[in-house]
Amino acid sequence: MLRSSKACLFVVASGIAVVATGVAAYRRFVSADTADVILAKADQLSWENQWIAATPLYAEAERLYAKENHPSKALYAHVSQYIPRAESEPLPSLLLELQRDQSLPAAMAPETRLRILVIEGMIETNYDASMALTTWQQVQDLAGNRGHYLLMARAMGERGIAAFLLGDFAAAKKLVLRGWLTAKYLHDPAAHVRYASVYGAGLVELQRYDEAIHALDEAIDTAAKSPGVAYPSIAVNSKIDALRGLHRHQEALALSDQAILRLPHGRLDAHLFQILTSKGEVYDDLGRNADAVAQYAVALHYARGLSYWRGITQTGGLLAHAYEKENNLAAALDTINEAIQANEQLPEELYFSPRNLAIKAEILDKMGRAKQAHALYEESLALIDSLLTTAPTPNVERALLTQLEQVYSGYFASLCQAGDINDAFGVVEKARGRIEAQALEHHAVVQPHEPTAQERQITQLNLELIETNDPGVRERLSQSLYDAELELDDSSLAGIAAKRPLALRQVQTHLRPGEFVLEYVLADPTSWVLAITRGGVHKYDLPARKVVEADALQYRKEIRDRKMNPKLAQALFDELLAPIAEYRTSSSMIVVPDGALHLLPFSALMDQGEYVLKNHAVSASPSSTVLCLLRNREGSTLRDPLQYVGVAAWSGTKDGDNVIFRSIAQRGSKQVQPLPESQEEVETIAHSFPESSTLLLGNNATETKFKSLPLADYRVLHLALHGYADLEYPDRSALVFAPEHGGPDDGLLEVREIRALRLKARLVTLSACNTGVGPVGEAGVANLVNAFIEAGAESVVSTLWELEDRPTERLITSFYRNLASGRDKVDALRGAQLEFVRAGLPPYYWASFEMVGDPTGTLEKIAGQGDAPRRGLPAWRNRH
After folding, report:
1. Element spanning 765, H or E
2. What's 516's DSSP letter?
3. Measured between alpha carbons, how far is 797 from 799 in angstroms, rounded to an integer?
4. Cα angle, residue 365 at apex, residues 363 and 370 outer, rounded to 5°
């Protein structure tokens, strides 16, 4: 099972809400009450999630019931005291105790058995969500049979939380929402607060921050209006995280301060611990390290007082890293040792361990103890690989790699410092492009299959979404579409062990004379790049990540605004390329980017007034390993003659009411204009492929017809279509085909569908908008380009921003004309771009085009160019 650190934290906090009313205050009236009255009061408190306040009452009730010889009620009260213990004791030992309790004759009483299952489910949620899912189903069934309908509704919500932790987001959303709405309908404010909080926390996990804040505000407001309901700790802390995610740091700090003032008690406890930790993270984001240290130190102090091992593990790592930034290495080492030792109290919970081991390794490295540091880094990487093997989807793998990028970059830096470039390369390659490498390694040609029920449901929902103009219906369909997409079986890579990357010497044997690979690693306070050629490898130090990424994003913005900024272009060249000696001696540059560099057009950087493109062919690859895997497939048997398929769906006049245009607009794209030049583009290119071209044009360019083609037989796929990148849901990024009424498909060829294609294409050209853009992380850019590579494409030409139709057609036809003359793929693209440079056009018009994958090789068997006659075109092409 894979759980992110934040998911683990919000669930751990789920059942343990602390109130200030002290034990002594309860003792004053306990002595005057019967055991049944005391138990009823304790149950009311625990129902409102005030477990610690309820614990002394349960202890007193247990004592009285034992004295009165009521073993089943005594056992009920006994197990109800386990929840606060879960904060500081190992969960497996508590579960073993519960198993022993279940075997007692007293556990046979229905209410006691139900209570044991409830406590077991709460603890299992923090230990093993698959176990919890089964237990909460038992609670739901038993509660329903006994008429405890509010508890039955809560059990349904708890099943949703377990489903979320297991990666089943569709079931999680359905169940938690059902629990939330039931709580509102049945006036169960404690459950209302809990499930609104958990739902919002889940949205924060998915980085849907704006949507999350609405749910979290509802939880906070409901708690404020409901006397007796526990303080909404999950909601408050998750809202702080959401504000951090939106970079609204001052609001996050203000909320932290308000939360501290509004805590309904004067005692510092687990709530305050989490708020102080969150506040420290905000200061960390702002670069206010001294303030971060102060908050973390106070939070850690109270975690110790609570024997809160998870808190010590979490915040201890944060504080150690902050001490390290201040070069207070002794304090940093002591603190990280404490954090690691705290994790030993919870040996089954490894979520913070890789990061903490890497922090300790970094500290030891700075203390001159490199050998010990490297051993810790290796242990950390082994733990990450273990977590990755249980990741339910490739997107979860990418998220985990992004969260733990500090481990890879730290070990890389340490090995470089020790002069071990070979192993440094291997470390960073373990993170780079591993999703694509796995897909290529396990790539097999399969026969087309009938759509699954889930795929048919998504298609139908997309069609309904396209057709409706009703905002209310559209919102309902969008939510249904979201649910259906999350239910997809995307486990083709699940459980596959991380592939061992190629060794540096193996990569070098795959490089050609005149080529060099630049593998970037961005970090603070220093970044690095490895320059790799056939004959050697060198490491160069570069500016801090925050400097490089700020400049890269600013330059890209100015290019998209059609501006020229030679000063910034030169500054980026100085930061990224000037130190590299290989740049001066080799002409073909293959970039393995990191972070925001995925979105930077290196060809548009400037050296002494000249673009990099003038003297260098520039391409990109998800990783060096992926580049080599692609080149290993070069010898595949090619049919004769070479085949080409060209698709142009949007060649007609503007139709603002076109249903497919509405669909794109609903998904957030600004580019919904027709592409009148696209038909001429694909027809002109077809001239270079005599007797072997297939064209899908206009209304005939449907998704169904495209997918029905023998795509594995085509060597060149040219798709002149609208495209968009969905940064929130990467698998929804799509190419947009012509609408088909009554057909089986929705016209949206999404990332998940592209991965399922089986291609042997030497070249795929995505002459569309924003096809190279996607969420950026250590695992790469999750986008359309990478999906085509995973599907089997050798190289993909894509765009980094939206473009005008006519300049695109001019550049692309020039690119294919160069290919037809026998030039290498990357050189052919460079030649087409240089025509625009010589014409004095700014980078906006040419720098968006990027080649990803293997940039070398010609397209053999191409004959004819210019105005050669078109022959053998299928009858279904549109001749308007």
Report:
1. strand 763-766
2. E
3. 7
4. 145
Same domain, 769 and 791: yes
List of the chain residues with pLDDT < 70: 1-32, 87-88, 165-170, 206, 264-270, 346-351, 386-403, 433-500, 633-642, 651-677, 690-691, 725-731, 768-782, 805, 860-880
Give the whole-angstrom CA distance, residue 505 versus residue 484. 45
Distance CA 486, CA 594 (A): 28
Question: Which CATH number is 748's domain given?
Answer: 3.40.50.1460
The answer to whether residue 35 sits within a structural domain is no
Measured CA to CA, the distance from residue 146 to residue 337 in angstroms comes to 50
The answer as to whether 764 is a domain residue is: yes
Strand partners, 647: 696, 719
Q: What torsion do the CA atoms of 559, 402, 732, 695 make, to the nearest 10 degrees?
A: 60
- What is the per-residue burial (b if ≥16 Cβ within 10 Å, else e) of 487-507? bbebeebbebebbebbebeeb
As beta bridge partners, residue 9 has: none
In the three-class reduction of DSSP (H, G, I as helix; E, B as strand; rest coil), residue 864 is classed as: coil
Question: What amino acid occupies position 307?
Answer: S
Query: Residue 790 has what DSSP assignment?
Result: H
Residue 584 covered by a domain = yes
Burial class, 670, CB count within 10 angstroms (exposed 0-12 / middle 13-18 / buried 19+): exposed
Q: List the domain range (segments joined by +) for residue 622.
A: 504-628
Q: What is the pLDDT of residues 665-721, one digit of tens each?
A: 444 444 445 565 677 787 888 887 766 788 888 888 888 899 889 888 888 999 888
Domain check: are 595 and 654 in the same one? no
End position of a domain, from candidates 596, 628, 660: 628
Residues 704 and 783 reside in one and the same domain: yes
- Cα–Cα distance, 765 to 718 (Å, whole number): 5
Answer whether residue 608 is part of any domain: yes
Contacts of 760 (CB under 8 A, 6+ apart): 445, 636, 712, 713, 714, 715, 792
Residue 878, pLDDT score: 31
Per residue in 805-821, pLDDT tens?
678 788 988 998 998 88
Contacts of 235 (CB under 8 A, 6+ apart): 193, 196, 197, 200, 201, 216, 219, 220, 223
